[in-house]
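ARCHIVE CARD
CATEGORY: sequence design from structure
SOURCE FIELD: tokenized fold
FIELD CONTENT:
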């Protein structure tokens, strides 16, 4: 029987990837926030940091199919239509979120690589050191930028979530429904 659900929605693969990547970003943040609870040099701490790397690398790998899907499936219109300023604010936030999904994992990988460390998960090397001799000063600078970007995007992601809730509960349009 054909589906009777004809409300405009993002195409299924765009919805799945949106939520999958959201889950992975959440995990990346969760792991990096708990790893400091474990003593330096402990195996648990090393594994949690490695899990942070893995979640972040998965985000990077998934953002490319996500870009590609944007060219295949259009963004469904919002009902009722948005004022131009609201539309524009959404666009800016989405561009910022995309840049974050691309740049933040790359900064993390470069931090580890310039430190001369392999990227490992449970002792298995996901990425060997590829950049030659370690440059600790550069690695430290990259880590600082990675940490700053991570902090700034707590706010941007928070704003994005608040906007979704505002659309749903205050403006009562179908913005959020289109992504579910
Ligand atoms: C969506 C992806 C990612 C997010 C949101 C993210 C977020 C963060 C945040 C917020 C911190 C700073 C924690 C603090 O200053 O207390 C951090 C630290 C770090 N991240 Fe990421 N990260 C991501 C991906 C990656 C990837 C892919 C790698 C490497 C493969 C990586 C490697 C690191 C390293 C080495 C640190 C420093 C850990 C330490 O303090 O020793 N990150 N990350
Ligand atoms: C790590 C967290 C998140 C990131 C990086 C993120 C990223 C994005 C991006 C890039 C878009 C643009 C559309 C696309 O190409 O898929 C988008 C759309 C959307 N997101 Fe998120 N998102 C996150 C979390 C959330 C959460 C938790 C919610 C709900 C509470 C949400 C609700 C929406 C909605 C409703 C849209 C459609 C907006 C529109 O079409 O104008 N997102 N998101």
């Amino acid at each position: 029987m054909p589906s009777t659900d004809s409300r405009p929605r993002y195409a299924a693969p765009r919805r799945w990837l949106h939520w999958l990547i959201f889950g992975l970003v959440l995990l990346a943040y969760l792991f990096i926030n708990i790893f400091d609870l474990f003593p330096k040099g402990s195996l648990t701490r090393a594994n949690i940091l490695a899990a942070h790397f893995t979640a972040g690398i998965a985000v990077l790998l998934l953002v490319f199919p996500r870009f590609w899907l944007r060219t295949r499936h259009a963004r469904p219109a919002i009902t009722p239509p948005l004022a131009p300023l609201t539309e524009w604010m959404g666009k800016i936030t989405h561009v910022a979120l995309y840049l974050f999904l691309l740049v933040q994992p790359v900064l993390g990988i470069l931090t580890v690589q310039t430190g001369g460390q392999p990227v490992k998960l449970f002792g298995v090397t996901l990425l060997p050191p590829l950049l030659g001799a370690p440059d600790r000063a550069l690695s430290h600078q990259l880590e600082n930028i990675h940490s700053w970007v991570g902090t700034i995007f707590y706010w941007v992601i928070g704003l994005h979530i608040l906007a979704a809730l505002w659309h749903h509960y205050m403006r009562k349009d179908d913005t959020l429904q289109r992504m579910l």
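CARD ANNOTATION: Residues 25, 28-29, 32, 52-53, 56-57, 59, 104-105, 108-109, 111-112, 119, 143, 146-147, 150 surround protoporphyrin IX containing FE (ligand 1) (CB under 6 Å). The beta strands are 119-121, 124-127.
SHELF: design records, drawer C
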